[in-house]
Design a protein that fits this description.
By secondary structure, the protein is of the alpha/beta class. It has helices at 16-21, 24-34, 43-49, 59-64, 73-84, 89-101, 110-113, 170-179, 198-211, 225-228, 239-251, 271-282, 301-313, 330-333, 337-348, 435-441, and strands spanning 6-7, 41-42, 117-118, 121-122, 126-130, 133-136, 185-188, 218-223, 255-261, 286-293, 317-323, 359-364, 368-378, 381-391, 401-404. The strands form 3 sheets. The protein has an 11-stranded mixed beta sheet with strand order 5-6-7-8-9-10-11-12-13-14-15. The N and C termini lie far apart (44 Å).
Length: 454
Amino acid sequence: MEKYKAVTLRNFREIPQIEAHLSEEEKRNIEIVGNVLPFKANNYVINELIDWENYQNDPLYILTFPQKDMLEPIHFHEMADAILGGAKKAELKLIANKIRLELNPHPAGQMEQNLPIMEEVKLTGIQHKYRETMLFFPSQGQTCHAYCTFCFRWPQFVGMNELKFAMRDIDLMIKYLRTNPAITDILFTGGDPLIMRTKVLSNYLEALIDAKIPNLRTVRLGSKALAYWPQRFVTDADADELLKLFEKAKRAGIHIAFMAHFNHPNELKTEIVEKAIDRILNSGAVIRTQSPIMRNINDDAEVWAHMWRRQVELGCIPYYMFLARDTGAQHYFACSLENAWHIFRDAYRQVSGIARTVRGPSMSAGPGKVQVLGISEVMGEQVYVLQFIQGRNPDWVARPFFAKYDPKAIWLDDLFPVFGQEKFFFEQEYPLTRKKAQAVHNGHHQLSDESLLL
């Protein structure tokens, strides 16, 4: 039985593949960026998923190992100067935290607008943005088997408690569910809730089962474990207990929706991930798959079509293609809205209807999940056609709207209304902030012209 071994800044230089292939400069770059953005890999990712003969272009290497350009030059040099100058650990932390606060650590109003308050208590481990769905951050699940370099939840992992969502109080969560009967779905998120031992996870799930909350229909588990440590469901000591827990939830009338994060088809190539998927499906859970589209990793229609086909072959349901969130290293990963739509469309038309359950490209922005439906011409003007898949106000959902065409736009607040309108229809309730968008229109956007080419 393979045992899990974490790889971090403390020990990555001891990895044989690192020693054999990386230059000293590359190792130092990992340390510089890894002092700002979280870094963790593991023995499965290193030995089974990364092609070390082509590591510089390998999508799984870029997905897990920090790259120099993931920090803006000013931030990279600030941290590099401190490290090379022999700064103490406490000083490095102060510099890192200063940089982190400049990276929009909580986009889309997560900290200010999504935290519910009950009986004058702020529920810091819950987010409730959409009427039917509540997010829950169990405190024991606020890490992962490995960290994705693009992760928009990176503040959970950097030791800044004031930026962290987490709670243990299951009774308070159940009380909140009872007082909000419109909630039908709970999403356990993090971090990764399946980093928890089954005994810990069962404390939460069995409490929900025993509570017999009439409005609760679905428990979603947002997890990258299938890609980064499929042993969790096959050979780990409590793998069988975990699957029995899923079965127990199903018998109690609770649907277990496993929200699997697969970013590249190479994560689906091993025998053990196939076994893990099969075992989860046999427990009665359903696996839905999602990923952002990211430059340098999966900005290719053939990659997406291959990934969706393979997921369907294994019994999974393609669910979402997201756009890179406006936080952290967005400048490194973001595709323009136009490119993302072309890639989605080219991949979508290659697959059969069984795989066309996927929706995207979608922005999880402040007002809601906004899908780019395409580019069209209306009244002689080129426009983006958009719609809400989810909204803070449910009345916004599935209402098409238009935005001025801008080939450099990468996010909702880069966009402007058309036909003489000053605001989008939803801005009466949720105004957008367009400081970044103004920079786009002035020609100072981070994306280069080269990166906009298909």
